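Note to self: the last two entries modelled the partners one at a time, which told us nothing about the interface. This time every component goes in together.
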Amino acid sequence: MIRGAVRFVDRRSGTAPLLRKALRYLFPDHWSFLLGEVALYAFVVLVATGIYLTFFYSDSTKDVVYHGPYAPLQGQHMSEAYRSVLDLSMTVKAGLLIRQTHHWAANVFLAAIVLHVLRIFFTGAYRKPRELTYVIGLLMLMTALLEGYLGYSLIDDLLSGMGLAIGYGVALSIPFFGANLAALIWDGPFPGGAPFYSRMYIAHVFILPLVIATLLAVHLALVALRHHTQFRQTPRETERKIVGVPTYPGQTPRSLGLFSAVAGVLLLLGGLVQINPIWLWGPYHTYSATNGAQPDWYLGWLIGALRLVPSWDFVIGGYTVVPNPFWGGAAFPLIVFGFLLVWPWVERGLTGDTAYHNLLDRPRDAPMRTAVGYALLSWVLLIFLAGAADRVDVLFGISYSTQVWIYRVGVFVAPVVAALVAYRVCLELQRGERVERQRRGAEAEADAAARRERLAPEPAARREPA
Amino acid sequence: MSKAKEALLAGVVLLVSRLRRKPRLKERERLVATAPPRPGWELVALILLLATAICAAAFIVVYALDRLPRETQLLGLSLGLAFVFLAAALIVTAKRLIVTEELEDDYPVIEHPDEQETVAQLVEESGDRLTRRRLFKVGLGAAGGAIGLALLAPVASLGPVIDMDPFYGTPWRRGRRLVDENGRPWRASDIEQDNFYTAFPQHADREELGSPLVLVRLAERELDLPADLAHFPARGIVAYSKICTHAGCAINLYRAPLFQPAEPKPALVCPCHYSTFDPATGGDVLFGPAGRKLPMLPIYVDALDELRAAGNFDGPVGPSWWGVRLRRPRTETSP
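The predicted structure of the combined assembly is written out below.
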């Protein structure tokens, strides 16, 4: 039967040689290589659950009165969009499960991508010949951030409206054409015209997923064409020889198993751990807001940055050149992504290393890169934490404004300290390994010498009687 | 005799092999290494697969039984566990039932100089007949660029790109009543100190950024307004745009000091990024990221003790943009 199927395919497509190669394609093994795969499977879950959600969601902002089963909102005015998500959560069987799984999957998707990027960065996997794979990966991360933001903005509950207001503020703050751009996107000033929600909707369910899927296809194709990178775990792994488990039979059940695990965990989270209980937030109006609002985790760094910038609009003669939210909401992520995008070429310029690399570095093997990575990471992480300063104030009673001032200084100090510490730790680890190698070498030599001494008299003793 | 025997035997073997129709591939050597069977692990995998099936069936049952208590949790648990068991079965299969081969292979060749040269040559030679190549390139560039721009032009239909008037518009004009959420006019006597109130323009769209106000009453001695705003309050009541000038959130926090000497002065605070505005000085920024003061609305109290606008804000409302300081707000003509 297998032969029949293969014959059928080969006779019609001539792909048997390709198929054979694909089955014997090698996957080097290391736990950190799973992170990208987890992101991929979370994306699959997102698409599957997302398609289901589109069957119930309405993108209409028409004002309606709620008469559903949720008593606290009885008789309230709201948009049809918000009501459709309430109905999806309250009356559609399995609707809440799918919606919560979708939301969890989005959070896991972005977490997996971010960890994957960290792995790629700190092991130098982006080096020649894989710069394009890396750049496309970063573009995917940027698209995914926007995609997630649009996702929770579509609901039109209080939190999503506040998020959109901030997004509008950031769009307006783009120098020279921000207001024009925002008017274009929102169809006029905030809260925008009726077409705005259908634009977000089509972007969220079609345009951006298509962009991500296309980038994903190119990303995976490039990975496969250049093969995976690998750690030097044994002397068998070299820059020319890849060592790994073949697609079939080794990798296939592993990958399917990982997919099942990701889907299972996401469904368990979706069913058991509440996320974004939109009925508690109520409908959004431009004049309402709530205290202690926090975005999904992956936008926390932007909230932190928006909050840290001191009161300042850059004005020349009445013309507002740079409105304040630009720094935290646009410049900050652009700097971070811009830096990551050009880094492979910057590093090449600094080290003069233009060689091809199939073997990964351990972070300690490249102290300069590790130091730079830790500087960037500590910077972003600190700003991310600054976004939670209000919660820290509420929970631990540390004054918000004191914290903000600490963070405002910290963002300049922390990267320098982190870089210096990381650099030093790398050197010490290297030195430790050198010492360890020397010790082992000396021990082996001593052992060998001892063995020689023990063995040497024996033949002599044997020789004597002869 | 033995020769005949051999011939007979050969014939039988030939016949049998013909009858059996041995596939040719069977003579090839194995690709995947052999290893002894592991019936114990096979049983484990089978049990896990069975558990998967049971959980998946349970999901259908929970779905079909209408309105169980904790339906979402049971649905998530059953389907989630089905996938978790499947994952376990697959991992057991991968790690225990399939021979894990660690193979070596060459990394792909780095480049193909010959092919590169061929591609470049093909492109170059194809253009040989052109005599004015540079001009031709300019022509192509012009045509392509113009078509690109032409295709992009309709994007301008998405919204009002050039007309900035809407950004300055608010529904406020002299005489317009300040009403509460239910449309009831606010009276000056309703507004108490140490509390804050949301007001809307009567008979106007509440959702636009220029509409909502915050009202607070301050003691006369607390007011410290610049000369051009001195006439804006009415009986100690000050009215500000409720939309934060930083990123457009609604200001919903009022810091009202209950113990004057120790606590900081009254302030309006936005919950999004904690921009903090001083209601006593015309909305100046006390703390936080906002780069512009909060727009203030002049109000007066009419003969019925009702609050009315005395004009428009002293500056455009909402987040800053390039033109926000260039013009004063204007009153929209009501539809």
